[in-house]
Amino acid sequence: MAWFRAASSAARAALRRNLSHPPHRTTRVLPAPPPPGARSFHSTVLCRKAQAPTAVPRPVPLSRLTDSFLNGTSSVYLEELQRAWEADPNSVDESWDNFFRNFVGQAATSPGISGQTIQESMRLLLLVRSYQVNGHMKAKLDPLGMDQREIPDDLDLALYGFTEADLDREFFLGVWRMAGFLSENRPVQTLREILNRLEQAYCGTIGYEYMHIPDREKCNWLRDRIETMKPREYSLERTEVILDRLIWSSQFENFLAKKWPAQKRFGLEGAETLIPGMKEMFDRSADLGVENIVIGMPHRGRLNVLGNVVRKPLRQIFSEFDKKKHRDEDGLYTGTGDVKYHLGTSYDRPTRGGKRIHLSLVANPSHLEAVDPVVVGKTRAKQYYSSDQDRTKNMGVLIHGDGSFAGQGVVYETLHLSGLPNYTTGGTIHIVVNNQVAFTTDPTAGRSSQYCTDVAKALSAPIFHVNGDDVEAVVRACELAGEWRQTFHTDVVVDIVCYRRHGHNEGDEPSYTQPKMYQVIRNHPSALEIYQKKLVESGTVPRGEIDKINNKVETILNEEFNHSKDYTPIKRDWLSAYWTGFKSPEQISRIRNTGVKPEILKRVGEAITSIPENFKPHKGVKRVFDQRAQMIQTGEGIDWAVAEALAFATLIVEGNHVRLSGQDVERGTFSHRHAVIHDQETGEKYCPLDHVTMNQNEEMFTVSNSSLSEFAVLGFELGYSMENPNSLVLWEAQFGDFANGSQVIFDQFVSSGESKWLRQSGLVVLLPHGYDGQGPEHSSARLERFLQMSDDNPFVIPEMEPTLRKQIQECNWQIVNVTTPANYFHVLRRQLHRDFRKPLIVMSPKSLLRHKDCKSNLSEFDDVAGHPGFDKQGTRFKRLIKDQNDHKDVEEGISRLVLCSGKVYYELDEERKKKERMDVAICRVEQLCPFPYDLMQRELKRYPNAEIVWCQEEPMNMGSYHYIAPRLSTAMKSLGRGTMEDIKYAGRAPSASTATGFLSVHEKEQRELVEKALQADPISSPV
Ligand SMILES: Cc1ncc(C[n+]2csc(CCOP(=O)(O)OP(=O)(O)O)c2C)c(N)n1
Ligand SMILES: [Mg+2]
User: Which of 221, 310, 612, 992 gives a 20 to 30 Å CA spacing to 167?
Assistant: First the structure.
């Protein structure tokens, strides 16, 4: 079994980039001694190797001579460098100049190294550098010893012209501004010493990959910690802590295996050192200022992490294995629940250093890695709410499997958020539980990269590969990762190379597919056995002491098991501190008005339409802002963008945080928002919504263009929205169809998260949707998919009486297709003006952004009784907009009621005017889900003789037809107005593609469906 992916020839060639030398050897024999006098680093030295062709010195362009020390590679190049420096010290990079000066100075004063040439010293540097770059290739990382990696030639002493005879010679190494072996403060060492330390530091049980980081300070920081004078050892006290933790980790799995042998738990066996590693990482991070850690992890080892790291009470974990016990709590909302290895939780945990740290493990779906961006978003939100500006108090930790880290694209998308100003969290720590298999798939079939962690190199993150059998090395790597994150505030990866003792889950037979690996595993001692043996044999901890700890742990596990039998689950824990007082679906939340005092509307309206005096916007933007100012002044003709800005501004005035993210959201895909404007002379930016209140916190309103990702960005915003309910968090898709790139987040989190995990979110998703003739890819946000995932029963009319109504609370989410700016304003504000949170999917408009009739008056936004838009309940979101003609409660003369949703309304209304069809009423269903039964029934009663038509612009198999029809028919049946057969359809025919690519066809189709909805004769058949 190769735990790494065998390097391709191309990769091997790349590994050899350090030196220009002949083809590689696979044996590791030292070559014959160099010819007499061959003390300097000539290419002839390399040619001594058997079959090696004579290397022809290549000319080195002068420009390369100015390369810095760190980039110097080829032998010819080194010679050229030396010559150039001797001729003119200024002709080489400062780092080389310093090196040569240092060398000359040192050689003159140190008798021990007087025989050393500059070229020898330079070759030694290359050797050290090769270990830094490629030492990990020789590191003993695979606990099973099955790796078949070729050790790169670069690590061969002979390659640099040294022989065994040189081993006890002293060499000068010190280099200006370098740390570790190359630092100036310990310049003279024998070659043997140097080699020994290189091997210990880089080829032991930790393989460090960091030389891809283009930052000398960071590399030096690592070298200081890796290239220590002596290998680091833990004190007895620390050793005992590590042992204790490893015993807990191992016994926990054994205990579960013994008690519940038939239950799936995705045990950690083979990777037990993860637990002491994580605990050390958290302790060290707490010492360095971290107070909160948000954790995301997959199935494997989750229960162990919950019990031993997060400290979820063991009795509770054990009680959850008891199936009988976990029926619904009487009268309590428990949702549909989820399997135990997906559930989240949070606890305060004391650390070894005497601090307390808050840990939250985010609930996750089975979809591997989908939780990554959610964790990062939640971490970012925690940083906002705790004013953690330097991002050192709140940290995200993600645990991955080797297969999923390499295979799932969302890993890359999430990594790429890490450095973006509005998404960074100051570094996520990634731990890969690299058990060298993914279900039944070997790494050779699972990835094209050498390591499963290579994707993180794109970020210049350091990667520490560590042998999972060496618990102290795992602890060391984890500790170092914590230190790195707190020092440099960027991502870091710990790759624990381990194995999976059993099958994929406890019932799976691994030998079907990995027979050889499992032959080795069967006879392989556990990490705990290895550690215990080592401690006993070295006399560090006596056997009796170890037995004592084992007995203690076993006793506690048994006690907890006994307590688990009468453990009563504590009332659900879905309300964290910020959520206190928020209602679950079983508790009624009062319906509130969302209108705003006129004076506030005016005040914020002025703030969001003013541009500072000296600011020079683009003249097109200036025109837009002038028009906006006019709208506020006159109170008329408010358009979509202004309505949205008013919603944001009024929520901010009320103390809420507003965050809008997505691709190009600052300007707006359709150039309608202009939330951030740009000075045409200085390039400076100005965001009017940052200036709504006095001394407004810069981040209180955040609008941010995102990376070109849907999955990670939506996941991030969802995580963000879950932290604190007093925030309006919105994700906008560029076009609605691109939302399918984040389908996992919709399916697994947004639509079902509350039901599975009892966690609420008020996330708003804006999905541009509408048939404007732009072709199949930019017309549909696939409304039907969202509707299909809605869980309101199409055949049951719920309680609709306003004081008793819980319809929205009981539904999984809300889906709207709003047609007026004022209604958009209210639906956004409604998100926060209620005592619960529910995701909101908005089919947002494109053509309506500038439609002449899609305007509202400011009076529709205010809370003044009697103003237009104010009905007997006040001003609030209208789930259904009745016909705009002044119809009475009963209109017997109306022969047709056309029901529709979204922008087609304006086309229907125009056609009606054109045809002077005063006998047709048109109602807009603004909230499709949950279905507004009460208002629909009101309209059905108003038009007792009307034929009922559902009009949509989407094809019949898309849009809302299939969602509306059964619900509308339920409403009709309840009033004796017919059945499904009586619902007439005016819309596009079923289609595979969402829309035609031909404008003329689009126009014809659109004309036909509008005409059909308003045709003079009754519509004969339903479709
Ligand atoms: C997105 C996704 N695809 C497929 C699966 C099915 N699946 C569950 S675990 C697993 C193997 C994961 O391998 P790895 O990431 O190495 O983790 P391990 O199980 O080895 O700890 C697979 C394919 C899944 N859960 N999620
Ligand atoms: Mg795996």
Answer: 221
